[in-house]
Design a protein that fits this description.
The protein has 234 residues and is an alpha/beta fold. It is 35% helix and 19% strand. The chain contains nine helices and eleven strands. The chain starts with 5 loop residues before the first strand and ends with a helix. The chain binds dicarbonimidic diamide. Dicarbonimidic diamide binds next to helix 7. Dicarbonimidic diamide (C5J) binds next to helix 7.
Length: 234
């Protein structure tokens, strides 16, 4: 389609305006181990249905974003097979019987190259979409994400994925400190814990948008389609 034009999304705390050629969709950690029954998330006692409800809105946003020819990036949380990038603190925290690097239901837990570490088939990356492998919660820590965005002159991010209060929130905060404006569509991010979902979103949009904006996928797509139409038929 096109990459020019400006979209205005109804959002909180006020409308989020983005230039189509300066904005990327960043999908955080939609990995099998977090979302699929039988994965690491469920092994820890979590209800994966709380996360799986975000798959369909993400699929719609991703399809429209791709059709508009706009940039998409994916992240995966995980570690090198030799675990040399896994801090001891992260390995032992939680005192679980199985922790990162141990054999799990979908291969070694959160280890790169293992089945559970990969992205769910519903949102699988296209070859031209960068996949950022991150050892931390934030997508900017110890990765080349900032360099990739800078080379593409990206200034604004639509951030989706899981989990709202952990990797999504950490990434939005890191992005904010690096000068990016972030919009989070509430139905495209998920938490195992409803109260964290609510507070995670509240924290982003609080105090006049201290970390960013919150909207939903319908409003985002409406704004995107309107902007593309306006550009094609001025
Ligand atoms: C967590 C993530 N929750 N992707 N990872 O450990 O939010």
């Amino acid at each position: 389609m096109t990459t020019n034009g400006t979209a205005i999304v109804e959002a909180e705390p006020y409308p989020f305006e983005f230039e189509l050629d300066r904005t990327a969709l960043l999908i955080i950690d939609m990995q099998r181990d977090f979302l699929e029954p039988g994965g690491f998330g469920e092994m820890l006692g979590n209800d994966v249905l709380q996360l799986r409800r975000v798959i369909e809105p993400n699929r719609r946003v991703l399809a429209t974003w791709r059709a508009a020819g706009l940039p998409v990036l994916h992240t995966r949380e995980g570690h090198r097979p030799d675990l040399s990038d896994l801090p001891r603190s992260k390995k032992v925290r939680g005192r679980g019987t199985s922790t990162i690097g141990d054999p799990g239901p979908m291969g070694r837990i959160l280890v790169r190259g293992e089945p559970g570490h990969d992205i769910i088939p519903e949102l699988y990356p296209m070859p031209e979409e960068p996949v950022v492998d991150k050892p931390g919660k934030g997508a900017f820590f110890a990765t080349d994400l900032h360099a990739i965005l800078q080379h593409r002159r990206i200034e604004k991010l639509i951030v989706t994925g899981v989990t709202t209060e952990v990797c999504v929130n950490t990434t939005v905060r890191e992005a904010n400190d690096r000068g990016y404006d972030c919009l989070v569509p509430a139905d495209c991010v998920g938490s195992y814990f409803p109260e964290f979902q609510e507070s995670g979103l509240k924290m982003i949009k609080a105090q006049g948008g201290i970390f960013g904006w919150v909207s939903d996928s319908e409003k985002l797509l409406q704004a995107l389609v309107t902007a593309v139409e306006a550009h094609l038929h001025p």
